[in-house]
Amino acid sequence: MTGLQRIARAFAQAKAEHRLAVVPYLTVGYPDRASTRGLLAAAVAGGADVIELGVPFSDPLADGTTVQRASEVALAHGVTLADCLAEAKAIVDGYDIPVVLMGYTNSLLRYGFARVADDARAAGVAGVIVVDLPVEEAGPLDAALVPAGIARIELLAPTTTEDRIARIAGAARGFVYCVSLTGVTGARTELPPDVGAFVGRVRAKAAVPAVLGFGISTPEHVASLRGVVDGVAVGSAVINVVTNAAPAARAEALRTYVASLVAAGRS
Amino acid sequence: MTEGRGRFGEFGGQYLPETLMPAIFELERAWDEAQKDAGFKAELDRLLRDYVGRPTPLTDATRLAKAVGLRRVLLKREDLAHTGAHKINNAIGQALLARRMGKRRIVAETGAGQHGVATATVCALLGLECVVYMGTLDIQRQAPNVFRMKLLGAEVREASSGSQTLKDAINEAIRDWVTNVRTTYYLLGSAMGPHPYPTIVRELQRVIGAEARAQSQALLGRLPDLVSACVGGGSNAIGMFAAFLDDAGVALRGVEAAGEGVATGKHAATITAGSVGVLHGAKTLVLQDEAGQIIEAHSISAGLDYPGVGPQHAALAKSGRAVYVSITDQEALDAVSLLARTEGVICALESAHAIADLHRLGAEDGDRDVAVCLSGRGDKDLDTIIKRLGK
User: Fold this and answer.
1) Euclidean distance between CA atoms B203 and B93, whole angstroms
2) Cα-Cα-Cα-Cα dihedral of B183, B189, B194, B198, to 10°?
3) What three-state secondary structure class fits A204?
4) What's the 3-state SS for B298-312?
5) What is the 3-state secondary structure (H, E, C) of A48-109?
């Protein structure tokens, strides 16, 4: 089964179970290299539908403090894109779950787009989310990823215009990632009130599922999004759960947290 | 599919989060319209004349020329512009553009503090809200400029992530912009970042080269043989070069910061020792490791302490139209003394890199007239200079 087929299957299954797909994000190598695999296993055990693996970058200009600090810790441990691909392969092989990488253009450019495509395919990676690569600049990466059957997951923002939504969402592969707010990643206490209208405009144009991310941190947030989106991406809040737990209790804390999000998304 | 707009050869582009793309298109449109508006240009010209004090002089530096073994050295005196550096040319133009766009809140980054001071100055003049991001380390080493910005009514926010210098201040300014994009204008200080910033900044700094070109002709009866300037992000250099790009007989030379020496790895010589990467919205040359992580730059001059460079400079280097060399911290310090003692001018450490390079030009071929952009004055660097030269 290809990565894209795994994505389609995961969202179909969540839909059949009348719940939102839950997409936890974890920076590879945070809090240390050795614990990543166990934490990802815990997220899967908690019911994660798709796994987002954060590729640490020195200058994460779209990330808030939580992911910035996690990236700095991971880089201090020497984590590279090759390490992220290895973690992806382990999760795909072990749990037959879709995995997407999330990071910045320069990490992929330096690795080489063709090599990214080859190695991502070999690892079973379903897609890549590149936060500083708008559709205008994505041609060369798409030229490598498309033949390899890997999706570049499109991002849409509340500032994205109607015609742009139509153009981007209409051609999207895998799923579309709706950025809930104007701002950087990071847990928020409340979601913007107009998020439903924004996601509605995207879903009207997209042939693939829509995932909402940025700011989502509580089961209450997830519950409020039932019927509004197809899935939720949760990153900084996941990292906070890991950070705030004692080392021996991290995996269980993460499993419990992901399970609470999955339960909250059930209609 | 090809890559997007705003390219200088393979360099440039718009590598930004989707949230900012409509804003960057809005900026492009507003800039194009302002360029066609005679009223915009008239107000800019009036402020450059009556407020900044333009045109700045072109000084015939005869004692310096003799000391470095060149026929003539002409100093383009941006140190005499209001706020003490060329940065004001760009800050005024972009602040007028922001006001035109209805944006009343300005964010900016600063390294040495010169762009921050220029931005705070213009915001005070035009009555705009001003927030300046500055790395924790730079706040410590450029305390007088931090105070100046506060005195001018700006809020200075600390960028404490990463290397705590200019690149991190830019990250923070972009994070602010992405958060407040509907109300806020990002007033970028150098000829770098996503399109259209490299073009906007070049056009607003072109006044340096345009004046220098006319003044050279008046002084020499012809154009200089070579034009040079220091390069960090490269705004004073691209402004100086812009007016001479089509003059095939005029050589262009950019001078980067070699820090403690390029071989030591502690430098900011991006064109000399960097490789192709994407940083802060543009594809350009950057200092990076094998995995594409950006490496901390090093220079005694906070204004050159940046691991990237404007995309047009990367393209000019690749095409060979401009040549880029580098000067160490020590050579720059020595040049501050040399210029002070031969011409009675205390220049900024940034500008001193271009002065130091004159020795090499004189040694290679002294039978030349060279016009150098003296981008700023040295008051802000006195602490640093005292620590190094006072011993």
Assistant:
1) 9
2) 130
3) coil
4) CCCCHHHCCCCCCHH
5) CCCEEEECCCCCCCCCCHHHHHHHHHHHHCCCCHHHHHHHHHHHHHHHCCCEEEEECHHHHH
Q: Which of A17, A32, A49, A52 is catalytic?
A: A52
**Distance between CA B106 and CA B129 in Å, rounded?**
6
Q: Which of B278, B284, B287 to mutate to test the interface with A (most CBs of A within 10 A)?
A: B278
Parent domain of A121? 3-264
Looking at residue B391, its pLDDT comes to 58
**Residue A184 DSSP class:** -
Q: SS3 of A124, please?
A: coil
| Mean pLDDT to the nearest integer, B307-329 | 98
The count of structural domains within chain A is 1
Q: Is B292 in contact with A109 (Cβ distance < 8 A)?
A: yes
Cis bond upstream, residue A134 (ω within 30):
no
Please name the amino acid found at residue B123.
Answer: C
- Percent share of chain B, pLDDT over 90: 92
Interface of B with A in 131-150 (CB under 8 A): none
Q: Do the beta carbons of residue B266 and residue B293 sit within 8 Å?
A: no
What H or E segment, with its residue span, contains residue A129?
A: strand A127-130
The pLDDT, as a whole number, for residue B122 is 98
Using an 8 Å Cβ cutoff, are A117 and A86 in contact? no
Q: Which of A63, A83, A87, A230 is catalytic?
A: A63
pLDDT of residue B375: 98
Residues 40-99 of B with CB under 8 A from A: none
- The reply to whether B286 touches chain A by the CB within 8 Å rule is yes
Q: What is the average pLDDT across B105-112? A: 95
Size of interface A-B (CB pairs under 8 A): 129
Distance CA A168, CA B154 (A): 39
Mean pLDDT of chain B: 96
Task: Identify whether the C-beta of residue B194 lies closer than 8 Å to the C-beta of residue B24.
Answer: yes
Distances (CA, A) of B83 to B122, B148, B240: 10, 10, 19
The CATH number that applies at residue A227 is: 3.20.20.70
Q: Which token pair is A171?
A: 């051609």
Q: Is the ipTM of this complex over 0.85?
A: yes
| Opening angle at CA B270, ends B268 and B271, nearest 5 | 140
Please tell me the distance from the alpha carbon of residue B25 to that of residue B2, in angstroms, as a whole number: 18
Pick from B386, B354, B388: nearest CA to B70 = B354
Cα–Cα distance measured from residue A93 to residue A95, given in angstroms and rounded to the nearest whole number: 6
Across the beta sheet with B11-12, the strand order is B7-8, B11-12, B282-286, B275-279
Rg (CA), chain B: 19
Residue B360 corresponds to which amino acid? R
Which residue in the block uniquely carries the two structure tokens 């981008």?
B375
| Percent helix, strand and coil across chain B, each to the nearest 5 | 50, 20, 30
- Residues A24 and A213: their CA atoms lie apart, in Å, by 10
Q: Which two tokens stand for residue A32?
A: 């240390």
pLDDT per residue as tens digits for the range A151-175: 999 999 999 999 999 999 999 999 9
Q: What is the pLDDT of residue B4?
A: 60
CA A145 to chain centroid: 17
Q: A10 φ, ψ to 5°?
A: -65, -45
pLDDT at B389: 79
Q: Where are the beta strands (DSSP E) in B232-383?
A: 251-259, 275-279, 282-286, 322-328, 369-374
* Cβ within 8 Å of residue A48, ≥6 positions away: A22, A23, A24, A97, A258, A262
